[in-house]
């Protein structure tokens, strides 16, 4: 029987953990075989802060994906995010021993290995080394140097750096869940793979992924990654503001934001009121939708302004660096009503909502095409590039796992259903809840595995 290239991505977010199993169909599109989702417990702003709870949440998502797909997961590509991520621009060169021979992949690998030896701040490690333009014997703006002659090979690099302890904690959680880590990818890069077209990357585009705990930014120009940043604010701070501003519990604040929230206060009339049931026999609370929008608007403006500062730092105002394709919004936060209009108003740039259906097979479930799953889809695509056999059919599993998983912790569902009463125009309506060097990656993942094994 022909070996299937089954790929698995694991998105460890602040709000949710998603395990996604997929493969390429005969048309080269991504066919999703199973998705598991659990409420993320133990992760704050993209960083693990409770190992036990994170392991339980991962196990629940993995188990659900396995049951839906009929495949047993062996290893995963995981997304890395968090406020500890930073990126630097760096240039380096090598002098080749023989300028009479054409440049090959091993020369580029040598250059990348050299960059990997860069001295970092204590406790930091390099996650990605992304070559940009190359220069051969002073001739610049070369995108593909392989096959050319030259003695001095030089390149500018986009280097992504993260905290070693945070990365190892993620590795520990995955290994303790009974699965292996096959690769690491910066989350905004995974989201970009899922929602951006090549034309947009060439023209110049900023991808803004608004998650629960962080807002991730990736800027592309001339098909090359130019800038990445992670801003430590996301949808959860909006929920927190609603909770504080309206004096209600978090569950109700989240439901209010999703059902009735808008980033544009002018859209709501003064007499649109939501009635929230009181706690333990207390009187119901009445909240004006206009005031709700004002609270959301204030926080979203703050997040977008911080992202826009990063875009300006990249040099968007320079005509040669102009982002012609504008902004693409994705992630759960992109589902907020009127956020597209607000981003266009603040930045003056064309904006669209990014759905991860660019590479999905035509028969994919509509839910998977939501911006919520952009990172998970990108991670599965990354796993396919690795050519790993990340999962096997349940019926060909010869023996159960050596280390059986501990009992799965039943975390509450993300979408809580709370009955709310909406009063519109004083009429009551009842509503209920509705391409980098692979060998480097291999070595990097092996390094984490060794560290974890030795730490036993």
TrEMBL record:
Domain of life: Bacteria
Keyword list, A-Z: Cell cycle, Cell division, Cell membrane, Membrane
UniProt subcellular location: Cell membrane
Chain segments annotated as transmembrane: none
Keyword Nucleus: no
Membrane association type: Peripheral membrane protein
Biological processes per GO annotation: FtsZ-dependent cytokinesis
Subunit structure: Self-interacts. Interacts with FtsZ.
Family: Belongs to the FtsA/MreB family.
Known function: Cell division protein that is involved in the assembly of the Z ring. May serve as a membrane anchor for the Z ring.
Protein's name according to its UniProt entry: Cell division protein FtsA
Protein's organism: Flavobacterium fluvii
């Amino acid at each position: 029987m022909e070996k299937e290239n089954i790929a698995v991505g694991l998105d460890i977010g602040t709000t949710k953990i998603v395990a996604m199993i997929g493969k390429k169909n005969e048309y080269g599109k991504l066919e999703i075989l199973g998705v598991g989702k659990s409420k993320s417990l133990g992760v704050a702003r993209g960083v693990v802060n409770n190992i036990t709870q994170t392991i339980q949440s991962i196990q629940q998502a993995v188990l659900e994906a396995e049951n839906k797909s009929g495949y047993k997961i062996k290893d995963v590509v995981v997304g890395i995010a968090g406020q500890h991520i930073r990126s630097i621009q760096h240039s380096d060169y090598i002098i080749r021993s023989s300028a009479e021979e054409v440049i090959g992949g091993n020369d580029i690998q040598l250059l990348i290995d050299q960059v990997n030896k860069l001295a970092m701040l204590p406790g930091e490690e390099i996650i990605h080394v992304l070559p940009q333009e190359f220069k051969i014997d002073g001739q610049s703006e070369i995108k593909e140097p392989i096959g050319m002659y030259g003695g001095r090979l030089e390149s500018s690099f986009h280097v992504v750096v993260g905290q070693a302890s945070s990365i190892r904690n993620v590795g520990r959680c995955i290994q303790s869940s009974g699965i292996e880590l096959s690769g690491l990818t910066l989350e905004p890069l995974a989201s970009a793979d899922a929602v951006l077209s090549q034309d947009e990357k060439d023209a110049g585009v900023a991808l803004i992924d608004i998650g629960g705990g962080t807002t991730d930014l990736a800027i592309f120009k001339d098909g090359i990654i130019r800038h990445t940043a992670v801003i430590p604010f996301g949808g959860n701070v909006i929920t927190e503001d609603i909770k504080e501003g309206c004096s209600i519990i978090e569950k109700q604040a989240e439901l209010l934001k999703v059902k009735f929230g808008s980033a544009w206060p002018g859209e709501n009339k003064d007499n649109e009121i939501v009635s929230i049931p009181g706690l333990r026999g207390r009187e119901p609370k009445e909240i004006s939708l206009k005031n709700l929008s004002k609270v959301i608007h204030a926080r979203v403006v703050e997040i977008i302004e911080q992202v826009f500062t990063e875009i300006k730092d990249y040099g968007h105002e320079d005509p040669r660096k102009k982002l012609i394709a504008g902004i693409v919004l994705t992630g759960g936060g992109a589902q907020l009503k009127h956020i597209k209009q607000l981003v266009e108003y603040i930045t003056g740039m064309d904006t669209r909502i990014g759905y991860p259906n660019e590479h999905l097979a035509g028969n994919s479930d509509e839910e998977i095409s939501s911006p919520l799953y952009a990172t998970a889809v990108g991670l599965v695509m990354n796993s396919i590039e690795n050519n790993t056999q990340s999962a096997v059919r349940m019926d060909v599993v010869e023996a159960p796992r050596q280390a059986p998983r501990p009992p799965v912790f039943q975390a509450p569902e993300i979408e809580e259903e709370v009955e709310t009463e909406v009063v519109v125009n004083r009429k009551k309506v009842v509503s209920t809840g509705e391409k980098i060097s692979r060998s480097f990656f291999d070595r990097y993942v092996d390094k984490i595995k060794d560290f974890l094994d030795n730490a036993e």
